[in-house]
């Protein structure tokens, strides 16, 4: 009888152990991200949060078009930065039947052309008369952009046509654009760049968006996350946490600042999570997640 009881106890222990292990005996969660500051910050943040909870997470840096293709073909599980209803509308309409759009976690995001506050210019319309609007005769005949294929670059190309601007749109990268902005800012030279909010550069430099009277860049967006079909069934707990996730200018701004100032995104995220543990734990609260 004792031997039978021992076997029953051991059997129950093995079943429990195997069941617990099987919860994480899945493929890694693959998060796709485009090379924007906030996407880098929140993707690394969720990688660390999910790894703390026992999940394996892989980050894949891709262009926006490949991001949507990856979600639609199950090559990518999650994308944490999707701007709707304007910026990502064209991509979403193309792939919406093969991906799932979820909750928004940030409200009031925007895109546009930005200049240093010292420039005597207030509207995109003013760019038509560069020498006069830049104050002392100094002028620029280019708009410094980011990566080709991004929604922001496509919208800027349309804005140049809409406003009839005789400007060259320079394709570069986020970091190259910021480097150009920094160099011009330190010398108080005229510079026009493509920018978006939220972004940490607005805390570092005194910048302003140019007014957009013809609405070339549309209204403000909300930032959502998206997943491949079937992710909700495979990772219901993770989806509940993500649905409970919300950030504002302060929380996202401090996260992006930590990441930009640290030696690596991992280090910056680790510092931010330690300082904001109660906020993160709120997203992971099982009762709150169950309601979303």
Automatic annotation (TrEMBL):
SUPFAM superfamilies (alphabetical): Periplasmic binding protein-like II
Keywords on record: Cell membrane, Membrane, Signal, Transport
ABC-type glycine betaine transport system substrate-binding domain span: 27-274
Subcellular location: Cell membrane
Signal peptide (residue range): 1-25
InterPro entries: ABC_Gly_betaine_transp_sub-bd
Pfam families, alphabetized: OpuAC
Broad class of where this protein is predominantly found: membrane
Record's keyword annotation contains DNA repair: no
Protein name: Glycine betaine ABC transporter substrate-binding protein
Organism annotation: Skermanella cutis
Classification lineage: Bacteria, Pseudomonadati, Pseudomonadota, Alphaproteobacteria, Rhodospirillales
């Amino acid at each position: 009888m004792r031997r039978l009881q021992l076997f029953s106890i051991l059997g129950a222990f093995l079943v429990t152990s195997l069941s617990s292990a099987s919860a994480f005996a899945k493929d890694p969660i693959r998060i796709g991200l485009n090379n924007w500051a906030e996407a880098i910050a929140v993707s690394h943040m969720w990688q660390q949060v999910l790894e703390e909870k026992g999940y394996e997470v892989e980050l894949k840096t891709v262009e926006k078009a490949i991001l949507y293709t990856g979600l639609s073909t199950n090559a990518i599980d999650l994308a944490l930065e999707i701007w709707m209803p304007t910026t990502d509308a064209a991509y979403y309409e193309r792939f919406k039947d093969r991906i799932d759009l979820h909750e928004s976690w940030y409200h009031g995001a925007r895109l546009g052309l930005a200049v240093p506050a010292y420039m005597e210019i207030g509207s995109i319309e003013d760019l038509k008369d560069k020498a006069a609007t830049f104050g002392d005769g100094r002028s620029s005949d280019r708009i410094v952009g980011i990566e080709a294929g991004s929604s922001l670059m496509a919208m800027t190309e349309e804005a140049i046509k809409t406003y009839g601007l005789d400007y060259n749109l320079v394709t570069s990268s986020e970091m190259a654009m910021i480097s150009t902005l920094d160099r011009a800012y330190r010398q108080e030279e005229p510079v026009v760049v493509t920018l978006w909010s939220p972004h940490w550069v607005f805390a570092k430099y005194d910048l302003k968006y140019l007014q957009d009277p013809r609405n070339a860049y549309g209204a403000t967006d909300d930032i959502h996350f998206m997943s491949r079909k079937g992710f909700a069934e495979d990772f219901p707990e993770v989806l509940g946490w993500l649905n409970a996730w919300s950030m504002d200018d302060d929380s996202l701004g401090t996260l992006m600042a930590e990441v930009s100032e640290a030696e690596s995104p991992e280090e910056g995220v680790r510092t931010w999570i330690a300082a904001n543990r109660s906020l993160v734990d709120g997203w992971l609260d099982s009762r709150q997640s169950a309601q979303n």
